[in-house]
Amino acid sequence: MTSEGWGTPPVEPISQHYIVCGGNALAHRLTLELVEHYEVPVVVLVPDRTRDHAPQIEQLDGVAAVVEYAGVTEEALRAVRVETARGIALVEGRDQENIHAALSAQGNNPDIRIVLRMFNQRLGENIERLLRNGTALSGSATAAPAFAAAALSRPNSVQVGDRFLHIAYDDDIDSHRICVVADRIDRQDLGRTRLLPEQEGDSASFVRLAREFGDDGPIRSGAAARRAAGAEGAAGTPGSGDGDTGREAAREPAAEAAEAAESAESAEAVESAEVAADRAAEADTAAREVAGVAGAAAEGRGGVAALQTLPSEPPVRIAWWRRLRWRLLDTLRFFTSARLRLVLITALAAVLLAFGLLWYLNRDFGWSLYVSLLDLAGAAQPDQPADAAAGTGTGGTWQRIAQVVITFCGITFAPVATAIMVEVLASGRRGQPRNPGAGTRDHVIVIGLGNVGTRVVAQLHGLGVPVVGLERDPQARGISAVRALGVPVVVDDGPLAEQLRRARLKRSRAVVAVSGDDATNLEAALEARAVRPDVRVVVRLFDDNFAHHVYATLDNAASRSTSYLSAPAFAAALMGREVLGTLSVFRHVLLIAELRAEVGSGLIGLNRHDLEDPGGVRVLAVRLARSPQVYHWNYADRTRGLEPGDRVVVAATRSGLARLNTVPGNAGGGRATAEQQSDR
User: Fold this and answer.
1) Is the dihedral of CA 158, 161, 162, 167 positive or negative?
2) Residue 13 in 3-state DSSP?
3) Could you tell me which residues come within 8 angstroms of residue 647 by beta carbon, excluding any fewer than 6 positions away?
4) Can you spell out the DSSP letters for 173-197?
5) Quick one: pLDDT at residue 60?
6) 226 or 160: whose pLDDT is higher?
7) Longest Cα separation, the chain
8) What pLDDT, on the 0 to 100 scale, is given for residue 240?
9) Euclidean distance between CA atoms 618 and 609, whole angstroms
10) How far apart are CA 474 and CA 667, in angstroms?
């Protein structure tokens, strides 16, 4: 230990570097992003070299130095030479500590780029106004949508303009496809997955289209097309002659439509020809979509994933009557105990039977209801013996029995209602923890109410999905926030199987384990599967080996890593890029980012050919400076260079976005010279 602090400053003077403050999983992933994909010098400030991920960070190639200080103080910032740094990322500690450190860094270096992790997003937006060149991000908010979507077995989406982008696989790929984002997908070996593959030429698509038409004429379904393509692959790939024959067959609908238009002598014939041409064009488009997916499988490349658009976020469809039933059952359980519920249900059933008997005997619904209500309130007029003997009473023996039953049940309701009020108000049940009710069904169990767990619960609750929280630590910060939403929470440090039983696992739709420990999350997943083998399981795992085992051995399971999902967004923000969201292709991450072409930036003059990179970057949409509100999806002009004020939306891998971030500013075509690259 030294007098300066818990560590010593870097031995070699350093400048134009980036500082990462933290020793947690996010700091580890962020450092890896910066040194591997952006290739910039990084100095890491950790609270303890021997704990958390600090030992793994020290072993990363490309890290300039690892400095140990108990906190991000003025002395610690001077030790990592914040005055000469280009950027600093504060990804550990509480919100207040990160705000103080950000302001201190800005005081030492007014031009430094600052990215700080904030759980309170509203506070983060206000803090951004105090920073000259900074942004506040929430790692849990970035990753929570992916966990919530995985729990509901629905695609995670990112909103771009008025559309929602999501990943679709194989049979789910439809006409809304923008581009193929992955192929060679093998669930048993996710390492084979290839992101953003090179787009095939039109000729290749046309050959597959011709094969789909063949001699049969109509387009076959996707499943039939893949079976046929597989049979062709087993028998041998058709030669060029077959392709030519199929090409001629594919041209037949369009040729017939053209001949019909030329030979038409009346308005009706011309109109028929136009309809035929439209149908031929629609058939051609549909065939290309089907053939694209079928061809990928036929050529032995494994599964295919595509980026698609939706006009709106897909809703979670839960019938209103089911929600009403759950709410009534939960309310009844909240206000009453089991004995009181038994008394109430028995009395109510007796009243309904007696009312039905009165209605049957008198055949007058209004009068039967009137008498029943009076009897229930204890205001009934009993028959006298003289009335019964004279036959002038209210009814026969059965009617009198029904009225007696209703009257006694009415007497029962009064003390029961009083007991409920006393139990609720006097014993203060409203302040006690709310356990899952008998009506809690088709819900999602979220295990671990830390930052990520709290965000996942809020996300699911906002979608209208019933949620139950499960936490072992009674001091966890998310318990109060989750209870404020009206979500029931099971707090217990007992056996996990018992906690899952109390959370009504057998009635749930999914289990999401998002605690901070991989082993605990995996244990929760296995315990859930032991009780209910068919339940959907989503596990938060940092270790890739764990994740591969989950995919290989567990069906109906998914794995996500919070740091893996959020670190690319933090790295891009540190470089001054805006990441709109992240999309998961199993354990792989695609970034949806919007880049702005500004004067002096390297994007000026670049066209789609320059921007796109197979395996790295795919251009999705362009927003021209003259019409910034309009998104031009799949912008057709691939040769037009970007002008100042233009914006481009891209889907990129981490390395692909890093390449765009390191393009030097020039007024030409955007290519970096060797001298410029060496200066970086």
Assistant:
1) negative
2) coil
3) 594, 595, 596, 597, 622, 623, 628
4) --TTEEEEEEEEE-TT-GGG-EESP
5) 92
6) 160
7) 119
8) 38
9) 10
10) 59
Three-state SS at 590: strand
C-alpha–C-alpha distance, residues 528 and 206, integer Å: 49
- CB neighbours of residue 266 within 10 Å: 8
CB of 19 closer than 8 Å to CB of 82 = yes
* Paired tokens of 536: 């959907």
Burial of residue 385 (CB within 10 Å: 0-12, 13-18, 19+) is exposed
Sign of CA dihedral 631, 632, 634, 639: negative
Q: Please determine, for residue 359, whether its predicted confidence score (pLDDT) is greater than 70.
A: yes
CB of 412 closer than 8 Å to CB of 363:
no
Tell whether the torsion through CA atoms of 659, 665, 671 and 676 is positive or negative. Answer: negative
pLDDT tens, 578-600? 788 888 787 788 889 888 888 77
Which tens digit of pLDDT belongs to each residue from 282-307? 444 444 444 444 444 444 446 888 88
The pair of structure tokens assigned to 153 is: 């077995």
**Is the Cβ–Cβ distance between 394 and 400 less than 8 Å?**
yes
Across-strand partners of 525?
none
Question: Whats the size of the chain, residue-wise?
Answer: 680
Residues 6+ apart with CB under 8 A from 653: 195, 196, 589, 590, 591, 615, 616, 617
pLDDT at 423: 61
CB distance 171 to 641 below 8 Å: no
pTM for the model: 0.61
The closest of 127, 29, 10, 37 to 575, measured between CA atoms, is 37
**Residue 321 CB-density burial (10 A; 0-12 exposed, 13-18 middle, 19+ buried):** exposed
> Which has the minimum average pLDDT: 74-78, 164-168, 206-210, 418-422?
206-210
Query: Could you report the per-residue pLDDT of 600-639, keeping only the tens digit for each?
Result: 778 888 888 888 888 889 999 999 988 888 999 888 888 8
Q: Which two tokens stand for residue 100?
A: 């103080």
* pLDDT on residue 20: 96
> What sign does the dihedral 613-614-616-618 (CA atoms) show?
positive
Q: Which of 99, 62, 93, 79 is nearest to 8 (CA)?
A: 79
Enter the tokens of residue 630: 């309009």
The contacts of residue 311 (CB under 8 Å, 6+ apart) are: 162, 163, 164
Q: Which helix (H) or strand (E) holds 48?
A: none
Give, for 365, the enclosing helix (H) or strand (E): helix 365-376
Q: What is the mean pLDDT of the chain?
A: 75
74: left (phi over 0), alpha (psi -120 to 50) or beta: alpha
pLDDT tens-place string over residues 2-28: 334 444 555 467 888 999 999 999 999
pLDDT at 254 over 50: no
| Cβ atoms of 160 and 621 closer than 8 Å | yes
Alpha helices per DSSP H over 40-171 = 54-58, 74-79, 95-108, 121-128, 139-151
Residues 6+ apart with CB under 8 A from 330: 437, 438, 439, 440
Q: How far is CA 186 from CA 20, 95, 304, in A?
A: 35, 41, 10
Distance CA 282, CA 599 (A): 43
SS3 of 563, please? helix
Backbone angles phi, psi at 173, to 5 degrees: -75, 130
